[in-house]
Design goal:
The chain is built from 16 helices and 13 strands. By secondary structure, the chain is an alpha/beta fold.
């Protein structure tokens, strides 16, 4: 059985589960009783890796569909990520540098959330505030189309126009250039396409100072069928990248979908994939002491099913990783929130994910975590190697309360807060665990994000639900379409 209360991977990431496993928590007997199902889950994921087959999985059209996210970390001929596709992304990035001033990425769900993680980790919140020299010639990067919010979209476009006017005053010889990256498998995604069309219309009003380039990331139409966005891209000569078949949106950050905006910003996409690859290789083992994804799935599944801890609070102690929590929300919710198991039996399975950030939400949510219902696992994320680290300055030595914190590295104070939170929770019978990330970079993000993606694949097998479909999402879409059509008819009649 489990030999420790932590698992350190070969890439340096640590899963510390001491407050989730042991007396009064998930027990060795719990793990032992699950051994046959864990073996079956591991075999199922190995089959998915080798053949793309997941038992009972169908597309939203009810047809057999392969699950191919397991090949994404591997850059090889014949794979979704091939040497040619990575070179195409790199060449695309090279055309952005020194030539494009701003990239606006339009996407929602898996076409936005993972991209935002890479932006936050690789570039940071204040990237867009710097001048071209600060950015070393790489463009600014903004995100839109992730909500049907016309006011926010117009505010962003007003900012782009303002930048273009300033650019015209200070630069002679070329127009301000905006690249619009539109990410949608079909091209009919409401939020994405509405915001894209609003942006295109608005920026064309300023064609005397702004030039617009469009990049479509969509279904490649390799099976002969052509999507709306692919048709538009061919018709208008837009550059194209792929939303690959067999890869659900919540897993697509490891494909062109997530890599295209990273490449446009000069980020180390090969390092991100290398981190994912190292984690996948680590998780080939069927031994819980070696496979952190299988172990994470087992502990979280047992905590939910046997101890009622079916809410997971995902709480990185790092502002830049709030977007990681938001990405994880979709991954966990869409993958595991299912009414029926594979036999058609109503099981209403799922664990509810909650976004939190330490230390911010120690002042907002921790009261509930500490004294509310015994229904939560708090999953902390800790950064070990902060670069750069910063000391609290001694500005008011006469004030004892402030002098006591002076001289402390922010990283050590942050870590002390996390440990204090975890200890307080444990003392009151609350479950928690920690992912310790050795460094905040794209390699480690590839590793951690892939661990989480594999975890939901394993947990789907343990719960006997399809972790790769999303029938609940299709339900509201079927209702929304006729409502929009009725609104359009009403508008036409009134005019």
């Amino acid at each position: 059985m489990l030999q420790n209360t932590f698992l350190k991977t070969r890439g340096g990431l640590v899963f510390d589960y001491g407050n989730l496993y042991g007396p009064g928590k998930v027990t060795e007997e719990d793990i032992r009783s699950l051994s046959d199902r864990l073996a079956d889950a591991h075999r199922a994921v190995e089959t998915m890796r080798s053949s793309g087959k997941i038992r009972g999985h169908l597309s939203k059209d009810g047809l057999p569909e392969k699950v191919l996210f397991g090949q994404l970390p591997y850059v090889a001929e014949g794979n979704i990520n091939s040497p040619g596709s990575i070179k195409e992304l790199r060449d695309f990035g090279a055309t952005m540098r020194g030539n494009v001033d701003t990239v606006i990425s339009f996407g929602i769900g898996g076409s936005f959330l993972g991209n935002k993680v890479l932006f936050d980790v690789g570039l940071g919140e204040f990237w867009n505030s710097g001048g071209a020299e600060t950015r070393d010639g790489w463009p600014r990067l903004y995100f839109s189309g992730n909500n049907l919010d016309g006011a926010r979209t117009m505010a962003l476009l007003d900012e782009i126009v303002r930048q273009a006017k300033d650019f015209k005053k200070n630069t002679a010889g070329r127009l301000y250039k905006a690249a619009l990256v539109v990410i949608s498998k079909s091209g009919s995604t409401l939020e994405t396409m509405a915001c894209f069309m609003l942006a295109l219309n608005r920026l064309k009003e300023y064609s005397d100072i702004i030039s617009v380039e469009i990049i479509a990331v969509t279904d490649p139409a390799e099976d002969g069928g052509e999507t709306l966005l692919h048709r538009l891209a061919v018709k208008h000569g837009w550059r194209r990248f792929r939303v690959p078949d067999g890869v659900g949106g919540r897993f697509s950050v490891f494909s062109d979908v997530g890599l295209v905006t990273a490449a446009a910003s000069g980020l180390a996409i090969e390092s991100f994939l290398a981190g994912a690859r190292a984690m996948d290789e680590q998780c080939r083992s069927d031994d819980l002491n070696e496979n952190p994804a299988l172990l994470n799935a087992a502990l979280k599944y047992l905590a939910a099913e046997r101890y009622g801890r079916d809410i997971e609070v995902f709480m990185p102690y790092c502002d830049s990783l709030k977007s990681l929590s938001e990405w994880y929300i979709q991954l966990l919710a869409e993958s595991l929130g299912k009414t029926r198991d594979r036999s058609g039996r109503a099981v209403y399975y799922g664990r509810t994910p909650v976004v939190a950030v330490g230390t911010t939400d120690m002042h907002a949510q921790t009261q509930q975590h500490q004294e509310g219902k015994l229904d939560k696992v708090v999953q902390f994320v800790r950064i070990d190697g902060w670069q750069p680290d910063t000391l609290v300055p001694d500005m008011f030595p006469e004030e004892k309360a402030l002098a006591a914190m002076a001289g402390l590295p922010f990283s050590e104070a942050l870590n002390a807060a996390l440990i204090s939170n975890a200890e307080a929770l444990a003392a009151n019978g609350r479950f928690s665990a920690v992912f310790v990330v050795p460094k905040l970079d794209l390699y480690q993000m590839g590793s951690l994000m892939y661990l989480l993606a594999l975890s939901v694949a394993y947990e789907g097998e343990l719960a006997d639900v399809d972790a790769f479909d999303q029938p609940g999402v299709e339900s509201y879409k079927r209702l929304l379409g006729p409502k929009l059509a009725a609104l359009k008819d009403k508008q036409t009649t009134n005019h």
